[in-house]
Amino acid sequence: MDDGGARQRGGGEEIELEYYAQFDLSVCRWQLGPPAPPHDLTRGVELLRMSGMMAKANFGGDADHLDRALAMLVYAGRYEECVAKFEGERARAPRTKQERHDQVMRDYHAGDLPADEAAFLLEDRVEAPMAYLTARERLNPTLSESELRQRFEAFLRQRVPNWLDKARRDLFTMWVRITTHAEAGASARAAVREIADRYA
User: Fold this and answer.
1) Do 182 and 27 touch, CB atoms closer than 8 A?
2) How far apart are CA 167 and CA 89, in angstroms?
3) Are residues 102 and 176 in the same domain?
4) In this predicted model, what pLDDT tens digit does every residue of 48-88 receive, in sequence order?
């Protein structure tokens, strides 16, 4: 019996927990490989669309939500949705980088923003743009395989130490699959170890 409606009525927390579980199961199945079948992410993507994370995802204070949401869409092969979400949020964030920087510093000096949150907001965001680039290239390739591989290598070199240091293994593993196309099973596990050893 499908209890999806009951879960949704039960509140957003259950939606958040279930879509995380759906994606975690997919990642686990990818690393296990046969005879474990691939996990269908249809339900996970439906829940992701309804989630609070997706609703909050933007280029402002909730940029981390945008990073994760777009990575999940690319991981699930929903490239059109990734492109549409990124371009929609970019259109709603007309302020320049300097204007955003100035606002963060004003809030910090006024005591309205803790130092760690200010530092986070001042970081150059690279995960959402890379998800967007990946989705766009999967839909309409403009880069050579070599050029795209170089972009992936630079991206992983920058982000892997942070993911591993902050125990963000879910994001790390999703991006390993996105950037390597490793087959499920032994190849997947080898790719995870290789990327961790190379860039940690």
Assistant:
1) no
2) 27
3) no
4) 999 999 998 887 767 888 999 999 999 999 999 999 999 99
20 with 105, same domain? yes
CA distances from 30 to 59, 68, 141, 174, 198 (A): 31, 19, 26, 10, 21
Is 71 in contact with 131 (CB distance < 8 Å)?
yes
Which domain range does residue 170 map to?
A: 145-200
Residues 63 and 129 both lie in one domain: yes
User: Which of 103, 45, 98 minimizes the C-alpha distance to 74?
Assistant: 45
In this structure, are 113 and 133 located in the same domain? yes
The rounded distance, in Å, linking the Cα atoms of 96 and 103 is: 11
Decide: 1 and 154 in contact? Cβ < 8 Å.
no
- 137-195: pLDDT as tens digits: 999 999 999 999 999 999 999 999 989 998 899 999 999 999 999 999 999 999 999 99
